[in-house]
């Protein structure tokens, strides 16, 4: 065998660095996923009392939720999103959506009123996204009567707190372009178009969504 050239050594060193970085990022995600209830470290954020609302927040893995709660969450998702899905190429499919919402990695941040009724939820996961350790917010859904009272903003702040104290790099989410209220809501919270968003793709005309994110300022100092 011949001797390694400086160029081949440089490539090898780069691969080693990439492998080490991936292992580091995977460890962060695994540590976040090892938490049974990431909200338990922040008791001050388990209550929201403002603008006539008095709700309690809880956070659970989908595996720890009973069937009636899962169906309450699914029904709220369908009530809010079915028409929007049907307006794009995705279409609404009960079976596929339920499968997505009950995958093993799914976690839920839930808000219940004084009667114990579900009024809002977020489906989120700890994951690697293009190699970055992230909290991916799949859904944030509120009942009509609790909107515009600060609860949605509060729940996103809770997700950010959970993500950033776990040293994850960002909170990331997908929003439908033809849901302007949601786009406006997230951008008001300083979410920006993520570098992975397909908006600049040649297939832009076929893409009904964009990917938004907020960076962990402790890691990415401006």
Radius of gyration: 20 Å
The profile of the biggest β sheet is: 8 strands, mixed
| Overall morphology | globular
Average pLDDT? 92
- The helix-strand sequence is HEEHHEEEHEHEE
Q: Number of helix segments?
A: 5
Relative strand content: 25-35%
Number of DSSP strand runs: 8
Q: Which structural class fits the helix and strand makeup?
A: alpha+beta
Describe the protein in words.
The protein has 222 residues and is α+β, with helices and mostly antiparallel strands. It has a single domain, classed as Gcn5-related N-acetyltransferase (GNAT) (Aminopeptidase). 36% of the residues lie in helices and 26% in strands. The chain contains five helices and eight strands; from the N terminus they run αββααβββαβαββ. The chain has an eight-stranded mixed β-sheet with strand order 1-2-3-4-5-6-8-7, sandwiched between helices. The longest helix has 28 residues. The chain is globular. The model has no long low-confidence stretch (mean pLDDT 92).
Q: What labels would you give this structure?
A:
alpha+beta; 222 residues; 36% helix; eight-stranded mixed sheet
Write the layout of secondary structure elements.
Elements: H1 6-33, E1 47-50, E2 53-61, H2 67-86, H3 94-101, E3 107-112, E4 118-129, E5 132-142, H4 151-165, E6 170-176, H5 180-188, E7 192-193, E8 209-215
């Amino acid at each position: 065998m011949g001797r390694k050239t400086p160029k081949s050594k440089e490539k090898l060193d780069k691969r080693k660095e990439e492998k080490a970085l991936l292992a580091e990022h995977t460890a962060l995600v695994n540590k976040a996923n090892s938490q049974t209830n990431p909200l338990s470290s922040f008791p001050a954020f388990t209550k929201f009392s403002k603008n006539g609302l008095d709700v309690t927040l809880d956070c659970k893995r989908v595996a720890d939720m009973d069937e009636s709660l899962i169906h309450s969450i699914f029904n709220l998702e369908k009530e809010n999103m079915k028409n929007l899905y049907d307006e794009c190429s995705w279409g609404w499919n009960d079976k596929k959506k339920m499968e997505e919402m009950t995958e093993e990695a799914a976690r839920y941040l839930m808000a219940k009123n004084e009667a114990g009724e579900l009024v809002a939820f977020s489906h989120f996961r700890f994951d690697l996204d293009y190699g970055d350790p992230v909290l991916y917010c799949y859904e944030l859904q509120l009942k009509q009567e609790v909107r515009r009272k600060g609860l949605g903003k509060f729940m996103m702040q809770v997700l950010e707190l959970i993500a950033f104290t776990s040293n994850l790099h960002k909170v990331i989410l997908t929003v439908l372009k033809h849901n302007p209220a949601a786009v406006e809501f997230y951008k008001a919270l300083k979410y920006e178009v993520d570098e992975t968003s397909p908006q600049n793709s040649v297939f832009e005309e076929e893409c009904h969504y964009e990917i938004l994110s907020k960076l962990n300022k402790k890691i990415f100092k401006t």
